Amino acid sequence: MKGRPVLRYQALAQDLSLRIHQGEWAAGERLPSLRDICLAHGVSMATAKRALECLLDEGRVKVRPQSGFFVTEPADPGGASEPAKACLPDLDQLRHQRERMLSLMQLAEQPLPVSLQMAGPAASLLPTEAMARQVGRLLKRAPELLAESAPLAGVAMLREALCERYAALDVQASADDLLITQGATEALSLALRALTQPGDKVLVESPVYFGLHQTLATLGLLPVELPCPAEGGLSPEAVDQALQDWPEIRCLIVSPNYQNPTGALMPDEAKRRLLKVAAAHKLTIIEDDIFGDLHFGSARPRPLKAWDRHEQVILCASVSKTLGPSFQIGWCLSRPHAKRLRSLKLSASLGGGVLMQRALAEFIRDGQYEAQLQRLRRALAESARQYLQALHRHFGAAVDIVPPSGGMLLWVGLPRGVDSVALLDRALPLGLAFSPGTVFSSQGRHAHYLRLNIGRPFDAELDQALARLAELVGAAN
Questions:
Q1: 113 vs 11, 80, 123, 238, 423, CA distance in Å?
Q2: Half-sphere exposure of residue 101, counting CA atoms within 13 Å on the CB side?
Q3: pLDDT digits 0-9 by tens, 81-127
Q4: Residues whose CB falls within 8 Å of the CB of residue 412, separated by 6 or more in sequence, listed in order
């Protein structure tokens, strides 16, 4: 309840900003009065004033005494240096591997009413107040933590708490085998650096998280893409064939549990077969298990590493999808590679801050993290149900969707004649953003797919946005 007034004025500011961007009010034109805005949007005078102050801070409008708020001129020294439209990224860059991540991040910064292109939960689904109390209690007991750095491997209490959680999933782990990192991206990057050299080939799923392609390109690695269908995920037999065709492949990166973007869940039997294939080829697997805790059913699927009796798997994960992006805490788990991973981290980011690692350790120890997971799972399961109903209601048989059993993503297949980048270009003026399918492949595949983040709770505004998207798809097909 406490956060609702803030969310309301922000939503109003985003709506007004979008309408300015769409040309409803031209540069130099006066906006409606505060009273008119209140009547049109059903908000209080304080909410309307706060929304206009946001636009003022952003340089979208300026104030003329006794006259009201006016849209800034492009050259207005007190306003924005460029028109609002210039803030949007060039969508053609989404077709080019090295520019995709930056373009999507720029898009995420835009004040769009329905922004579904990044994978993450809404603020209302995060335990912000509980974590604030946890950090406050910790600082009250030990304010010196603000001046301390964590050990290179990470705070021991946190490593032990994570290993205890993995033990419940049959993952054999010691705190000495686990390295705390700056999020999952650093964990994956360190694992790749430990196993490869520039120019090496790496097996990856296709489609796969666009940030992984960025990491591979930065490290000078060459992806070999294997199909990852939404039903069942990566095929162990396809991996076996690829390793016969390319014996020089150095490692495999795979997300067996609720893969990004397809939401695929690999059956346990397939996980065991994959490990047998890896053992036969002496291949090391990097497992990305970032969505594993977000199951909709009663039981959490075990990670691939639960069957890893020959230390073939480097397990990577983080809490960014369960506690939010401010918790850039991830980890790598591997006994044979532990020393190498720590050495590589020494040249990357050292140990990080001790405060948030200690806070997370206590959050886990006190049972609050598991309680947060239960709340988030229920919310995401309900969100998935509502999104799927809306998509089938508005699109009918025009879309192909495999209902996910966990995670926070929907992989939506459009008619083959529809290009999702071009569709995004037409959707942005309507205030809707999503991730087009081409960004999930280094070879421009999956052009008629798109990914939606269901971490935003379903509401009437979202339903209307999906209805408009269906109209665009119908017009393009």
A1: 7, 21, 15, 41, 17
A2: 13
A3: 333 443 566 676 666 666 666 777 777 777 788 999 999 999 999 99
A4: 391, 399, 400, 401, 449, 450, 451, 452
